[in-house]
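Cross-posted from the bioinformatics board.
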Amino acid sequence: MVRYIINRLIALLITLFIIISIAFCVVRLMPGSVYEMGGDLSQTVIDALNAKYHFNEPIIKQYGYYLENIFFHWDWGNSAKIRPNVPVFEILRDRIPITLEINLISLFGAIPIGMVAGILAAIKKNTIVDHIISFMVVVFISIPSFIFATCLQYFFGFKTGSFPIIYDVSATGTARYASMVLPILALAFDPIARVARYLRAELAETMNSEFMLLAKTKGLTYAQSTVRHGLRNSMVPLANIIIPMFANVLGGSLVVETIFSIPGMGGLMVDSINSSDHMLTVAILVFYSLISLITILIVDLSYGIIDPRVRMGGKK
Amino acid sequence: MTLYEDNKELYDSIPAEKFKRVERDEAIHDAKFQTKPICFLKDVWLRFTKNKASVCAAIVILIIAVLAIFGPGMNRFKYDEQYPDRVNMPPKIPAIANLNLGIFDGGYVLKNRQYDSISDTTKYPNDCIINVTNPQVVNGVRMVDVEVDYYKYLGISDDECYWFGSDYLGRDIWTRLWRGARMSLIIAVVSVACNVVIGLLYGSIAGYYGGTVDMILMRITEILNAFPRIVIVTLFVMVAGTGMFSIIMALIIKDWVPTARMIRSQFYRFKGSEYVLAARTLGVRDMALIFRHILPNSMGPIITSSMIAVPTAIFAESFLAYIGLGLQAPETSIGVMLSQGQKVLLHYPTQVVFPAIVISLLMISFNLFGNGLRDAFDPTLRGAE
C-alpha cells in the first residue's frame, strides 16, 4: 500500500512537471512581450524590465530560471498586469480560499439533498414521484451551471431583490454568506442531480438483491430493511463519484465566479488570459492541474479504503 | 405393463370415429412465418419510438437544426450588419404583437417620466404608449413609468422589426442566434465525429491485438487522461488562436480517450466468441474481422456515447466563450451570445433569454435522445444510469 502510494505520488509529480513545462512554453511562445502591450512605458523602461525578468534571453534559459526560482525560492514570478509586481503566489493565496469555500459548500450541501431525492425516487420507483425526480435530474444535469447562474441572478438578485446581485467583497458575517447563496445554488444543481441519479440506480438494484429478501424473510419491516441493509450497501460506491465531482464543480465555478464577480480563481483565470498576464496564467493552470491530479489520486486510493476487496497495486 | 393395458376399459369406451390415422406418406413441416422477420435496426426503431420523451427530443433537435440551417436567411438582416442607431432594440413580431399578449410587442419601459407630458405627441409619437404604471409624486411632480412600443417610439416601420431584438451594435439577434446555433452544432458534431473515428481506430487496435500493443496504447491514454481537460483546452486555444478550427481541435485532443476505452472493452467482450473463432478459422483477415465482424456489434454503444458527447462539446464551446476564448467577432456562437448578453443582463434580459433557451433545449434534448437510444440499443440497461 505504501509502495503504491509512493509510486502514484511520483507519477503525479512527473505529470505536474510536464504540465508546468508545457504551460510555460505555450504561454511564453505566444507572440508579443509582456511589457510591449501596455504602450505607456518608454523603451528604456521596457528594456530594463525585460532584462530584470530575463525576457530578452533564449526560452530555454528563461525556463531554467523559472524552474530554479520555483524549486529553490518558491517564487512563481510576479504578476505583470493584474496586480503589477505582486508575487503570483501571494495573489493565488488571496484568491484560493473563497473559491474553495464556495465549491466545497455547494458540493457538500448538494450531497444530502441529492441523496434524499435519489432514495425517494428509488423506493417510489415507477410512480409519479420517480418520474418527476428523474425528469428534474435530466434537466439539472443538462443545463449548464452558467445558465442557472444567469437565471438566479436575474430573478432572485434583480427582480425580487432577495439576495445581492453580485458578491459583496466588503461584507462580513451573514451579509457575506447571503451574497454567496446564489453562486452556491447555481453550482449545486449539477451535483444534486448526479448524486440523485446514481443513488436511485444503485438503491433500486440493491433492493432486488437476495440479501434484501433474506432481511425481509427474517422479519424486518420495509423501513428497517431499506435503511439498515439497502441504503448502507448503496452508500459504499457513492464516495467514488463525489470526489471526482469536485473537479467538475471547479470547472463550472470558473464561469459562475465571473458572473457573480467573486474575487476567486475563476475570475482571475479569465482576467489573466484576457490581459495576457503570463506568469499568473501559468500558475493558475498549474493550480487547476494540481487539484484535478489530487482528486484522481484520492479516488484511486479511496477504492481500497472504502471497499477492502479492491487490492491496491497488486499484480492480479 | 403398458398405458393401454392399464386403462383398457377407458380407451375401449372411446368410439372408433374419434381416432384419426397419421398418414405416413404426408410430409410434416412447420407452419410458415406469417410475419416478416425484424432486423436489428428495425427492432431498435420500434423500441425507440415507444419512448415518447426521446421522440420529442429528436423532434426538438431536428427543429433547431432546420432553424440553424435556414433561420439566418429568414429575414432581411445579415449576422454582421450593424445599425448604430438601433442598438438594444426589444423583440417585436408584428403578428404576435397584434394579439396583445404582452410578449414580442417591442415594449420597453421608460422609467420616471413626467405624467403631464405623456399626451405630448412630439415626445411620444405615433401613439406608441402601451401601458402606464407606477404613478408616484417626486418633489411635487407626478412621475410614471411609461411602457412604449420602442419601434413606434423611434419611428421604425413594422416590416423592419427585429424578431428577437438587437444587440449592442444593432445586429439582429434572430439571425445571430441561428447562425450561432449553426456554429455551435458544427463545432460539436465535427469534434464528436473526429473523436469517434480516432477512438474507434485506436480502441479496436488496442482491443483486438491485446498484449503488449494494448498495454502501450493504454499507457498513452492514461498519460493523456492525467492532464486536466480545462487546462489542455485553454492552453491549446491560447496557442492556436480563437478560430472554429482550433476550438474543434482543442475538443479532440483528449476527448477521444473515453470512446477508445469503450471500444476496447467491447472488443474484449466479442473477440473470444465462437463466431469470431469460426471466421478466423475460415481465414478472414484481421482488418475484415475488426471492421466487418466485431465492430458492428458495438455500434449501439458507439452511437449512444457520441450522442451524449454532443452536449458536452456544446458546453465546452460556450465555456470557452465565457472565459474570452470564443469565436472572434463578427462570427458568433451560442456561447458568444450568452457571454455578451450576460454583460447587459440587468437592462436587456432578452439578449440572454433566447440563446439560453436554445442551449438548454439542445442540451436536454441530446441527453434525452441519447438515453432513449441507449435503451433502444440495449434494453437490459433500461432505467440504469
